[in-house]
Recover the amino acids of this structure.
């Protein structure tokens, strides 16, 4: 249950009832009705919620906002509600202060829902696919993939906890030019192993990493030297297949180690083999959006996007400055482009599998691809503008002692995801990479392994472990957290106790907003703040040695805090240790 939303709804109901009562008594014009917004003010010294209904209704009622506010307060019945008082502030705000029942209901709600506390139904009924990482399978995953993995996985979890049916997918680019280059690179290294490096020139545009040498060595060990005499097409097909059979399980293992599990690894090759790429291009042709030039089939991207921009009010001069260009879908040699396959893949997501929304986590260098792909889906009648969302993530710089790190200390090569997880804990990697996607980030390797309050993930995990240790120690002395109904929660009057309970109440709302904004970083910020509130409570509001009923009420509050920290960390894929 989202008690933040419920409290706002209750305020709207209270104001509506007060408005009707005031109108009936002549304090407001007959038939008066008020609409407004309810917010949590930054400074809650004068109230926990602020409503602006008196100000927004002033013109229609032809009254001063403070007059309207006074009439509403005079006719407002708070008995039985979550609020103990309401007063006028500033130009006409209605400031509501929460009462004892609300604070008790928060703890009751947490105890009742347990591990499910924080879930909402704001996205109930929606089927959403989140596609993320989708790294090129021709080599090890890099640091950008590490960041995209966390952003995609945490976003998928936030959407799920907001009520959506979520599907996680990895798109495997196992077709096209990069796979031919991959096979050609393995082939060249294979030939060099047999004939010598002097005798075989390595392709300038090939993949030069040691992983290619290793694949060639494995291929030779398994297949022998006879492949040099085979047809090059057959040889490349075999080497590409062998390389993918080696690389994909490694990628899957690295991501499993990282705590990321997919519902499906979708092969690009399946789109070509089924004829779905050709069918998608034919569909665009039927709709009049393609043309032929120099033996190739082109998508009239400039017309598709130009029409959209004109409909949005852009002038011809503004559109001209954008330099819109058309895209090749099928080359003169008969091979379909990556863009054609991408259109088919997203058509498959929205049309064949029927997802309401498809969300992709992409690197910022794909920015120019977003409008083109959305436009192609619009041309297919799939409303790409609203059903496809792209989260663009910025670059990551690894830092150690203030210096940029590019090479692994273990391998001396460019740092891969596997290298990173050899150096720092998975929890730290997942926490730090969950920064806002649109911000470039400096990942401090030294900070990630520190075990003190300067390390934010340690700080939050320590709060959880501290509570667990306290609960265990007090239980040994016969003091356990009671059920809310058995606790005298009215004793929790200290400001630090109330601030902690308010913090606990925020998780469902944070999940709702994080899902709405595609920003799981809100959960990291939230749980850091919650840990800070708990540490203040723990320092100032002693449990051991307090009067028995107060100690029991505080123990219940601490146990609820433990549950909420655990729930928040689980969204991020970060563990909540019992001891540290």
């Amino acid at each position: 249950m989202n008690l933040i939303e419920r409290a706002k709804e209750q305020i709207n109901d209270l104001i509506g009832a007060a408005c009707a009562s005031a109108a009936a008594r002549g304090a407001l014009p007959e038939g008066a009705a008020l609409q407004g917004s309810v917010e949590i003010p930054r400074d809650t010294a004068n109230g926990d919620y602020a409503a602006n209904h008196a100000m927004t209704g002033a013109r229609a009622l032809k009254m001063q906002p403070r007059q309207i506010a006074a009439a509403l307060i005079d006719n407002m019945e708070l008995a039985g509600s979550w609020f103990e008082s309401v007063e006028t502030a500033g130009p006409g705000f209605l400031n509501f202060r929460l009462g004892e029942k609300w604070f008790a209901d928060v703890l009751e709600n947490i105890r009742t829902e347990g591990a499910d506390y924080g879930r909402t139904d704001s996205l109930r009924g929606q089927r959403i696919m989140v596609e993320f990482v989708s790294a090129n399978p021709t080599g090890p995953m890099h640091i950008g993939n590490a960041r995209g993995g966390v952003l995609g996985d945490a976003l998928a979890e936030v959407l799920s906890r907001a009520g959506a049916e979520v599907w996680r997918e990895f798109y495997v680019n196992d077709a096209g030019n990069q796979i031919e280059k991959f096979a050609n690179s393995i082939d060249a290294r294979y030939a060099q192993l047999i004939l010598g490096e002097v005798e075989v020139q390595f392709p300038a545009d090939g993949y030069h990493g040691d992983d290619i040498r290793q694949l060639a060595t494995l291929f030779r060990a398994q297949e022998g030297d006879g492949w040099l005499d085979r047809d090059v097409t057959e040889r490349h097909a075999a080497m590409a297949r062998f390389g993918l059979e080696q690389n994909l399980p490694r990628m899957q293992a690295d991501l499993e180690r990282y705590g990321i599990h997919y519902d499906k690894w979708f092969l690009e090759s399946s789109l070509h083999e089924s004829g779905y790429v050709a069918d998608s291009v034919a569909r665009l042709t039927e709709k009049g959006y393609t043309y032929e030039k120099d033996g190739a089939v082109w998508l009239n991207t400039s017309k598709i996007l130009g029409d959209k921009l004109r409909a949005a009010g852009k002038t011809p001069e503004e559109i001209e400055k954008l330099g819109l260009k058309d895209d090749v879908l099928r080359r003169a040699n008969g091979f379909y482009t990556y863009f054609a396959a991408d259109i088919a893949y997203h058509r498959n997501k929205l049309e064949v599998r029927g997802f309401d929304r498809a969300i992709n986590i992409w690197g910022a260098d794909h920015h120019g691809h977003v409008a083109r792909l959305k436009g192609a889906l619009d041309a297919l009648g799939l409303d790409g503008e609203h059903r496809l969302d792209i989260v663009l993530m910025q670059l990551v710089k690894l830092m150690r002692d203030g210096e940029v790190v590019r090479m692994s200390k273990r391998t001396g090569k460019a740092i891969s995801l596997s290298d990173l997880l050899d150096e720092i804990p998975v929890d730290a990697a997942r926490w730090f990479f969950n920064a806002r996607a649109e911000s470039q980030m400096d990942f401090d390797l030294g900070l990630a392994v520190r075990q003190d309050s300067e390390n934010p993930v340690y700080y939050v995990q320590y709060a959880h472990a501290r509570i667990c240790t306290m609960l265990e120690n007090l239980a040994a002395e016969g003091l356990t957290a009671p059920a809310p109904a058995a606790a005298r929660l009215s004793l929790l009057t200290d400001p630090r106790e109330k601030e902690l309970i308010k913090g606990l109440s925020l998780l469902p709302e944070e999940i709702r907003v994080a899902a709405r904004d595609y920003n799981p970083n809100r959960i990291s910020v939230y749980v850091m703040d919650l840990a800070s509130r708990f540490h203040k409570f723990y320092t100032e509001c002693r449990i051991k040695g307090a009067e028995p009923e107060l100690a029991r009420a505080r123990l219940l509050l601490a146990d609820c805090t433990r549950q909420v920290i655990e729930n928040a960390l689980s969204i991020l894929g970060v563990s909540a240790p019992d001891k540290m």
